[in-house]
């Protein structure tokens, strides 16, 4: 059973990765504008003063315009740094100054705050390859955000960022997969309810 779910997730990730790779640039640009607008709307609605977000890779929806807005608006931004042991450290970032980290992922340049810094967040924005309307999120397979969210005693609202066609009727789920409260897409903010 677990092997079947794991296989289903790998196959779906490969399909979604290819879809992202072949998405036309003008479609991505328009999508990024909508995502930025909805992330700002979500942060404003939740009155999040400390926001945990991520530095997007080249194939993910672009989070940098949102990060620039958050910093210009006086909000504190926590950005993840992947560790070899499977945990995430955090650093305050400016959304622009970055280096290449583990797995070639972009990470902030600055003082490391350690794994528990995430507990200061009022809103957590995380990457995803897909979500479903039950709040099941599928990441890219390394489990960093699942471990982080699973270890938090009091977790603030968590929203995944995906393209519209990545909100699916059902996403394969394993026991360790953390649920999300909603998703931000180019055209809407979805609220799935509390985990």
Structural summary, described in words:
With 195 residues, this protein is an alpha/beta fold. The chain has one domain (2-191): 3-Layer(aba) Sandwich (Rossmann fold), CATH 3.40.50. Helix content is 30%, strand content 22%. It has helices at residues 2-21, 25-45, 64-72, 144-151, and strands at 50-52, 76-82, 88-92, 98-100, 106-108, 123-127, 130-132, 137-138, 158-161, 167-168, 182-184, 189-191. A 7-stranded mixed sheet has the order 3-2-1-6-9-11-12. Strands 8-7-10 form a 3-stranded mixed sheet, covered by helices on one side. A two-stranded antiparallel sheet has the order 4-5. A hairpin with a 4-residue loop joins strand 11 (182-184) and strand 12. Helix 2 runs parallel beside helix 3 (64-72). The longest helix is centred in the first third of the chain and has 21 residues, at 25-45.
Helix and strand sequence: HHEHEEEEEEEHEEEE
Indicate the CATH topology.
Rossmann fold
Helix content: 25-40%
Spatial strand arrangement across the major sheet: 3-2-1-6-9-11-12
Amino- and carboxy-terminal Cα gap? 24 Å
| CATH architectural label | 3-Layer(aba) Sandwich
What does the overall shape look like?
A: globular
Q: How many E strands?
A: 12
Class of secondary structure makeup: alpha/beta
Tell me the quaternary state.
single chain
Q: What's the structural domain tally? A: 1
- Low-confidence stretches are none
Instruction: Please compute the radius of gyration using only Cα atoms.
Output: 16 Å
Query: How confident overall, as mean pLDDT?
Result: 88
Could you name the CATH class? Answer: Alpha Beta
């Amino acid at each position: 059973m677990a092997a079947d779910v794991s296989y289903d997730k790998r196959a779906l990730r490969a399909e979604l990765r290819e879809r992202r790779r072949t998405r036309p640039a003008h479609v991505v640009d328009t999508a990024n504008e909508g995502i930025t607008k909805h992330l700002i709307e979500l942060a404003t609605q939740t009155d999040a003063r400390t926001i945990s977000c991520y530095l997007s890779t080249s194939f993910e929806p672009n989070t940098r315009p949102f990060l620039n807005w958050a910093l210009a608006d006086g909000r504190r931004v926590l950005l993840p740094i992947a560790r070899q042991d499977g945990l995430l450290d955090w650093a305050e970032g400016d959304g622009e100054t970055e280096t290449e980290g583990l797995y070639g992922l972009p990470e902030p340049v600055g003082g490391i705050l350690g794994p528990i810094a995430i507990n200061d967040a009022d809103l957590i924005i995380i990457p995803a390859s897909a979500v479903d309307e039950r709040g099941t999120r599928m990441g890219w397979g390394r489990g960093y955000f699942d471990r982080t969210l699973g270890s938090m005693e009091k977790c603030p609202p968590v929203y995944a960022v995906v393209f519209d066609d990545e909100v699916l009727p059902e996403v394969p789920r394993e026991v360790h997969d953390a649920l999300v409260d909603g998703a931000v897409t180019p055209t809407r903010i979805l609220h799935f309810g509390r985990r």
